[in-house]
Amino acid sequence: MTRLSLIGIGTGNPDHVTLAAVRALNAADLVLLPRKGDAKSDLVDLRRLLCRDLLESSSRTRIVEFDLPQRDTRSDYLDAVDDWHGAIARVWGELMATHLPEGGQAAMLIWGDPSLYDSSLRIAGRLSAVGRAVEVEVVPGITSLQVLTAEHRIPLNAVAEPVQITTGRRLRERGWPTDAASVAVMLDSGGAFDALPPEGLYIWWGAYLGMDKQTLIEGWLVDAAPSIIEHRAVLRERHGWIMDTYLLARTPLYDN
């Protein structure tokens, strides 16, 4: 039997990696590091840094890098994602069959936490379908929402009020979620908040959270939105990629 540890590593600050994550990393026989192309080389560079700094000198852990399959950009998004996950599961299965033919402990370093808008658990669940049964262990990590609220020094929710976590795609398609006092938005391809009437909405935005290039903006949406759009375009051009998250609320949360 092969065991697979999905290890949450936070969003870019090595200090955010938990002791449990360090133990799981050192217990692995094999660590798989995905490469996502030159534009996102920062992501694999951080994983390499963590392996270099956190693996004990006596460790016999093997580190194997692989190219992540590309997702089809066709219009039927959910079907394209489903096919993509299947392709990734096949790659994982082949790598574990090659490098752990007799079984053992494999590990993946997951950006943020495996539970929040990450598909590693779903992909791991498909491994049996590609002939590689695994026992999955999850090591939780710090999420981008935790870093966002910490850096802005705000709570995630207003007093006694719910918060909804959604994607930029859903916010653009469906608007403000019913009964939500605050909305946390992830996986926004670019300024989905522009689809909302801005009056009375406050935004806390962050890009490259936890990394040395972290950028923060906050303010009433009607004023902050143009600045965020401009900064986002400049940062994407400068670094070749961008990962941002934001929280919207009908009132500044710290007023509660």
UniProtKB/TrEMBL annotation:
Keyword vocabulary terms for this entry: Cobalamin biosynthesis, Methyltransferase, S-adenosyl-L-methionine, Transferase
GO annotation, biological process: cobalamin biosynthetic process; methylation
Molecular function, one GO term: precorrin-6A synthase (deacetylating) activity
Domain of life, per lineage: Bacteria
Cited Gene3D superfamilies: Cobalt-precorrin-4 Transmethylase, Domain 1, Methyltransferase, Cobalt-precorrin-4 Transmethylase, Domain 2
SUPFAM superfamilies xrefs: Tetrapyrrole methylase
Domain Tetrapyrrole methylase as annotated: residue spans: 4-219
Cited InterPro entries: 4pyrrol_Mease (IPR000878), 4pyrrol_Methylase_sf (IPR035996), 4pyrrole_Mease_sub1 (IPR014777), 4pyrrole_Mease_sub2 (IPR014776), CobF (IPR012797)
The protein's annotated pathway: Cofactor biosynthesis; adenosylcobalamin biosynthesis
Protein name: Precorrin-6A synthase (Deacetylating)
